[in-house]
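P.,

For your records, the input lines for the assembly:
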Amino acid sequence: MRVVSVALFVLAWQAGSALNAYVQYLNPILAPSPLDMLWAGYDEAVKGILWKDIGASLARVFQGFALGSLVAVPLGCAVGYFRGVEDWIDPIVELFRPIPPLALLPLFIIWFGIGELSKVLLIAFATFFPVFVNTTEGVRSTDPLHVRAALSLGAGRWQIFSNVIARAALPGILVGFRLGFALGFFVLVAAELIAADSGLGYRIQESRNFFLVDRMVVGAVIIGVLGFGFNLLLRRLEEFLLRWRSTIVQATG
Amino acid sequence: MGHKLEVIGVRHAFRPEIGPEPLVALERFDLAVDDGEFVCLLGPSGCGKSTVLNIVAGFIAPTAGRVILDGVEVRGPGRDRGVVFQEHALFPWFRVGQNVEFGLKMARLSRQERARIGDRYLDLVSLRPFREAYPKELSGGMKQRVAIARALAPDPKVLLMDEPFAALDAQTRRLMQDELTKIWTATGKTILFVTHAIEESLLLADRVVVMSARPGRIKAELAVPLARPRSDVAADFVALKARVQALLREGEAETAAGESEERAADR
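Structure tokens returned:
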């Protein structure tokens, strides 16, 4: 059903483009058909540009995502677990959270240069918040009864953390990962549009300079497909890791 | 040889969220339980019976008084006191077997040793075939049986049970009561069991401790001299039940009178 829906959409688009080519309502160059795009994409793939761009973009997202999560998960656990830490860290996080990451892009470029570092750090910054917020929520959602049960079965502090709190927080952490990854992707492309010499966002911008509309659309479509694919992958991972659970928790943040 | 478990002069007061006066949940509470004895704490909700259990378990520290287990004063929760809660409190992310073996894992027993003891307690509650299932796949009664096996597996000195069957339907509850009697007979554990159901206390216990509310204290203690297995329709059972009912009703009248006095004093 879902596949048919997508197929029909692509067919309608192809038909629309063909009709446009006939009546010349828009300049056909401005409205590429799916077939045109397939050719453009094939061309880029054969020349090896496509793989280089995808590789460059994904490398940035993964590095930034890993860096952001590496800070967000331990900090989120500490904030969710210790009241004292919460009072110190939470206000600062809440102060930075409303700032759209892209507003900081020019600043990051001045600080960290136009190379990889500024983009990776920006993605890390963007990833941090959803992962952090969902981790603290997850830790706080721990059932106190489970902690009591573990205590009466002889668990120590660290054993309670690894056997109870970390497990109870996992659903929240995974939701944070999914949101963080999507946001990282979002920020990445925007950063590449403005300042980069490789990557999918850069390719769209460069194609614009040469008025290659079909290639601009190809870039966008590939970003869409990648985002869709990774979201699906993370959902599968969630289903596997949380197979003990009967319901899905709602995302926060 | 003294008692297995002793609660001596326990008082528990806490500051409620509204109102300046501290609320006294327990006052001068004394209880002694012998080795292998099955004791029920019976009382209306709010009489502090669960507070007693939580203090014995070490989850809350009493304002005054002591809890002594095998001659050693209780400070905080520990594996020498197994606890079964009203909501099974199984770890949903662990399989049934892992839940039962949790206390053994905390004690750093080897995998083989854990499996051996785990199997024994799974057999005790007849759930060995469900070793690899997750708690969500079990019925309420089965979950509570796993919870009992989990609490017993580390071989605690006493088993503390806080209204463990209150959330189950009537039929399942009846089955669980028989099952618990069997488990108690088989293991010879000392059990302290909290309930608000008169029948349940008379079906299970050697001795019923009847509590009254505000402040929670012991109103009466009575031995249950009935042979097991017990029937809730036998004449002596019904007679005993009527006695306890009368005892509790007396308590209710007192509390009601006390409450109206309090209200009058507020004005």
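Two observations worth noting. Residues 257-267 of chain B have pLDDT under 50 and may be disordered. DSSP finds eight helices and ten strands in chain B.

Regards
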